[in-house]
């Protein structure tokens, strides 16, 4: 059936377009009317103003256009604004909510059209449900976008939440428009925060060059053999301050380019989101060089850098920068090698054995920081100690010489030393590889602060959702920087940059969360808490191993097929 067409301003157009044109005319008539809202509340003043609008208002007219009636569902209302505008601008009579004639929904706010109750006046007043900025956009829509980022949600999640509360959901186009307008404010606030932390780090530094830790992360989980994320981020954390000094973001995709290319259309002029065309693995060293250059251009030379050995970062940095290997990655790689050996040697499968061996190695490395010879000597004594030879052991960590007759290993099976020449040879080769690296191991650094920041980024931009095609990823990484540097009250500073009210309840919640985080951090740093955590972990592993022995093989690679083949073999009398 052919589309029904009508005339609009002398031109033939489809009926759907005619209805849209009619709605726009109604909205423009209301917008350009002589009605004025008497009271516009502003509890904040800033020198700079940022232009915000409600993306053409994305309005929905109420009963007059067949949309959701104004009395259906719930609304987000600022009571102070509503109360101060509930009087007729013609006769100053009080207005009543049950006299509402229509409603225009603007995101999470509304314009209510209320008829004066006076029989002599009957004037239709326009009453907003919230504060508006100078360009007439509602503040609640801008704050909804910032709240969405703070909660680590996307537009669809906001719509699901609001619709579940029976509140008219804010449209995705409105949130996308706020993203374009507010991302520069978030990024500028993050840059200003980094600038303050750089100055603080310089004041706390004891040398001319700053000392920082560097690490990068991807927004897509690596499989262990394939790393193909389209986006990545990196951070430089000051060793003395523990705060972000600089950060960078890389993206290989632009949603605008992708949209028009998919339609074989000419890509229009736009601010392209692509700033990297190489491989995903090449992002980390490139961002390291970019951050170091940016720091130098701003007058902050980095003298020492803590980083892992997972990328070719050091080979691309200037020779003036001294690199320290990451202690956490040294421990992680040692554990991985021991767990690989446990597939071959049954003695290593006990819950406490591998953690005990790792502690022996890492205690030796940590104890002898700065002394290569002492580290080499004690590393050579670790394997003999585990296998019952205590002639080379140091009295500072081995208690065998105090009472040889009663000595027992606390964390080895039955309190006895490990045995087996083959296993001992494998362990000695492992120890020799670390002795050969003693020159690098004697001066280790830490990227734990960067790993913590990467976890924060995941809370703002979860890896199961993609935000790298627009400015959304940059806004979310910048938000993670603000939270790392400023705490949970970072939203108030972004509100200031965006010319929005700081938010009294927003500040209170941020302060409360900061207090809880500090209390939790102090608790987790105590020796008693760490010992309890290790004990609970051991009990959990021990319970898992006990139940696995009772149940037999229940999960594994193609285990179902192996069981079927074994069953067929027995049925055939094998």
How is the topology of this model organized?
Elements (H helix, E strand, L loop, with lengths): L4 E4 L2 E4 H17 L27 E3 L17 H6 L15 E7 L2 E7 L8 E5 L10 H12 L4 H10 L7 H33 L5 E9 L12 E8 L5 E8 L3 H8 L20 H15 L4 E6 L5 H4 L5 E4 L1 H16 L10 H15 L4 H15 L34 H15 L2 H4 L6 H13 L11 H15 L3 H8 L6 H21 L2 H25 L7 H13 L3
Parallel strand pairs: 7-10, 10-11
Antiparallel strand pairs: 1-2, 3-4, 4-5, 5-6, 7-8, 8-9
Q: Your description of this structure?
A:
The protein is an alpha+beta fold and 574 residues long. It folds into 5 domains: 1-32, no CATH class; 40-170, no CATH class; 181-324 and 462-486, Nucleotidyltransferase, domain 5 (2-Layer Sandwich), CATH 3.30.420; 329-441, no CATH class; 527-571, no CATH class. The protein contains 19 helices and 11 strands. It has a 5-stranded mixed sheet, with helices on both faces. Strands 3-4-5-6 form a 4-stranded antiparallel sheet, with no helix packed on it. A two-stranded antiparallel sheet has the order 1-2. A hairpin with a 5-residue loop joins β8 (231-238) and β9.
């Amino acid at each position: 059936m052919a589309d029904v067409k009508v005339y609009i301003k002398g031109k033939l157009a489809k009926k759907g377009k005619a209805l849209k044109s009619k709605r726009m005319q109604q909205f423009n008539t209301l917008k350009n009317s002589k009605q004025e809202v008497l009271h516009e509340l502003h509890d904040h003043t800033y020198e700079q103003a940022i232009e915000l609008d409600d993306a053409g208002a994305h309005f929905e007219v109420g009963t007059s256009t067949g949309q959701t009636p104004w009395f259906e569902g719930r609304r987000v209302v600022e009571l102070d604004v509503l109360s101060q505008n509930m009087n007729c601008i013609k006769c100053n009579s009080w207005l009543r909510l049950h006299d509402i004639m229509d409603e225009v929904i603007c995101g999470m706010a509304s314009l209510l059209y209320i008829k004066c109750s006076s029989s002599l006046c009957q004037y239709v007043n326009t009453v907003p449900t919230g504060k508006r900025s100078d360009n007439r956009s509602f503040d609640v829509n801008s704050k909804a976008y910032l709240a969405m980022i703070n909660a680590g949600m996307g537009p669809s999640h906001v719509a699901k939440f609001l619709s579940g509360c029976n509140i008219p959901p804010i449209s995705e186009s409105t949130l996308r428009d706020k993203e374009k307008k507010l991302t520069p404010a978030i990024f500028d606030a993050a840059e200003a925060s980094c600038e303050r932390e750089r100055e603080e780090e310089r004041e706390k530094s004891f040398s001319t060059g700053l000392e920082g830790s560097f690490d990068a992360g991807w927004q897509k989980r690596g499989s262990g053999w394939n790393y193909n994320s389209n986006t990545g981020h990196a951070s430089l954390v000051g060793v003395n301050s523990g705060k972000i000094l600089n950060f960078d973001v890389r993206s290989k995709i632009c949603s605008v380019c992708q949209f028009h290319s998919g339609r074989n259309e000419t890509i229009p002029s736009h601010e392209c989101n692509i700033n990297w065309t190489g491989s995903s693995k090449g992002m980390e060293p490139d961002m390291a060089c970019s951050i170091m250059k940016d720091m130098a251009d701003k007058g902050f030379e980095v003298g020492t850098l803590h980083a892992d050995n997972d990328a070719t970062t050091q080979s691309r940095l200037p020779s003036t920068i001294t690199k320290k290997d990451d202690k956490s990655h040294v421990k992680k790689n040692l554990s991985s090698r021991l767990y690989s050996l446990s597939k071959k040697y049954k003695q290593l499968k006990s819950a406490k054995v591998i953690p005990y061996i790792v502690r022996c190695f890492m205690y030796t490395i940590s104890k002898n920081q700065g002394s290569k010879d002492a580290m080499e000597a004690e590393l050579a004594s670790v394997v003999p100690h585990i296998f019952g030879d205590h002639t080379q052991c140091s009295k500072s960590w081995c208690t065998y010489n105090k009472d040889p007759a009663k000595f027992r290993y606390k964390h080895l099976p039955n309190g006895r030393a490990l045995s087996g020449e083959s296993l001992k040879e494998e362990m000695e080769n492992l120890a020799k590889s670390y002795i050969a690296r003693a020159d690098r191991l004697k001066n280790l650094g830490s990227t734990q602060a960067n790993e913590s920041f990467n976890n924060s980024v995941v809370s703002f931009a979860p890896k199961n959702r993609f935000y790298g095609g627009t400015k959304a990823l940059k806004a979310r990484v910048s938000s993670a920087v603000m939270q790392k540097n400023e705490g949970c009250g970072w939203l108030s500073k972004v509100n200031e940059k965006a010319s929005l009210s700081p938010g009294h309840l927003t500040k209170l919640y941020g302060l409360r969360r900061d207090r809880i985080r500090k209390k939790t951090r102090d608790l987790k740093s105590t020796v008693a808490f760490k010992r309890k955590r290790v004990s609970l972990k051991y009990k959990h592993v021990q319970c898992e191993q006990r139940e696995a022995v009772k149940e037999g093989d229940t999960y594994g690679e193609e285990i179902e097929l192996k069981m079927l083949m074994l069953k067929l073999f027995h049925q055939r009398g094998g």
